[in-house]
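Quick bug: Class F sortase output formatted oddly.
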Amino acid sequence: MRRFSNVAIASVTVVSLCTGAWLLGSGEETHAPPQPSAAEARSGAADPRSAPALPPSPPDRIRIPSIRVDAPLMGLGLTRSGSLGVPPAGEKNLAGWYEAGTTPGETGTAIVAGHVDNADGPAVFYDLGAVKKGSAIDVDRRDGSTARFTVDAVEVYKAAGFPDQKVYGAADRPELRVITCGGGYSRSTGYQGNVVVFAHLTGSRR
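Here's what came back:
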C-alpha cells in the first residue's frame, strides 16, 4: 500500500461531509449537532502517557462509547481536488479512514472522517462535538488487535482557517484524528467548519 504524508490533504478535506442535508430539508436549524466547548480545547503540554506503537494494520471498526458510536470503517482516498473522499451519504452508520496514510495504532497521525448527518437525519458522528477530554476511542484492526486511544482535545475550526499542519501533521507517537462537520450551520452554506477530535494511543489488546 503506497503511503503519503497526511499533510498533503487539502484544507477542503471534508467539504463533502458538510452540506447539512437533513437540517436544510427539515428546517431544523435549532437542532444542529453539539459543538465542543472551550474547555475541551488543547491546553498545555501533550499528555506524556502513551502506549508502544503497533505494527501497521488496516482498521475495521471504530467505537466511541461516550457518544454511542459503534461503526464499521471503509478506506478513503483523495479526490482530484486533493480533498478526502467520504463514505456514501446514504450509509449513516459508516465512517472512513485515510488508507494511504497512517493506520490507527502505528506511529504517526491516523485520520478518520464521517458524516454528521444525511438527508434522513443524524449520522455516525452527529454527537462528535460532545466528546470530552479523557474519553476512550477504540479501533478494531484487521490483525485482531484493538487500539485504544484517549482524547486529548476536541476543537472546532472554520473552514477558511482550517489548521492543516496541526490536524494532519506528522506525529512521533501513535495519534488519531476524528473529523466531521460543525462550526455553526447556515441554510445557504451548510455547516461552516469542522469538529476535530485529537487523541493518542494509550493501550491495546487482542
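Actually, after a second look the formatting is fine. The chain has a mean pLDDT of 85. Closing.
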